[in-house]
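Subject: for your reference before the review

Hello V.,

The reviewers asked for a structural picture of the protein, and I figured it would be easier to keep everything in one thread rather than splitting it across files. Below is the amino acid sequence we used in the manuscript, unchanged from the supplementary table.
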Amino acid sequence: MPALDFASLSFLPLNWHAQIAEHIRGGMHPRELCERLIAERPLEDGAGVDDIYIRAASALERAASQGIEAIAFDAAAYPAMLAAIADPPPMLWVRGVGAALHGTAVAIVGSRAGSPYGLSVAEQLASDLAARGVAVVSGLARGVDSAAHRGALAGGGVTVGALGCGADIVYPSEHKALAAEMMRAGALVSELAPGTLPQQHFFPRRNRIISGLSRAVIVIEAGEKSGSLITARCALEQGRDVLAVPGNVLNGRNKGGHALLRDGAKIVETADDILEELGMCPAGAACAASGSDPVLASLEAGEGSSVDDISERTGLSAAALLPRLFELELKGALRRAGGGRFVRIDKAC
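And here is what came back from the structure prediction:
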């Protein structure tokens, strides 16, 4: 379908995205869907379908003039991990290297007013993960987010920033130099059309994109009402792992993170803790065929297995399995067979 059709859906309210995804997956054409939704719930500014399409065409022109890639939900370049969530953006606006949205990624999030300890931990974890080929996703905010992005760059790796504004706008503006460095190998992404200014209600919504692009979310220094806990909740709803770094119990910065630990989140001290939780090989560890990955180990080469079969063998829920299966498929470690079954084709780690 033309990118214009999906771009038009970007101009509908963000809280409609789950309904939009449900109908698109069911085969409804975006224009027909746009017409139906506006007929059912007229927009506050009174815009009709033709008005929405005019705005979408203008956004695509602006994106093209600024080197922003518009990736529609039905495009092969749309990240498989994000496509699997309940309410994916109908259009991703990407500035930088689109390939950075594929492969293994981990999100690191935390306080905007991070302590020296929290910032140091975020930077070190990100650097170590990046050095091992894991992309680091965060929100380009002050504090832990920016420390994670800088750490990934220091580790010679890739980092992705999910924004609460258009991809052509860097917020906060003090991070323009950081954003420019990120885009050399990584990317800035947004579900909001170019030119959209940051607004407070955009940021909680973008958190589902941070977790949706990632295999796991690492929380560092989150208070009781931290936005990082929204990202953690999104991750759990999406079947992603949630891990937390323990911290000082006296300053109140860590109450949210410690609550996650009490609820069963894995404690993170080093990058190896994260890699182990994801079933990946830590640096220097021997990697024995498929035995290092419980999902691959549950599959027989050449014999198809359903998600229910794999769930029974691994003890993982279907929600937790799907992102891992998508990633292994991207790596060429398995392929889809008929009837929703999966076949292992590569015993390498």
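For the response letter, the relevant points are probably these. The CA atoms of residues 230 and 307 lie 28 Å apart. Residues 286-292 have pLDDT under 50 and may be disordered.

Happy to draft the paragraph if you're swamped.

O.
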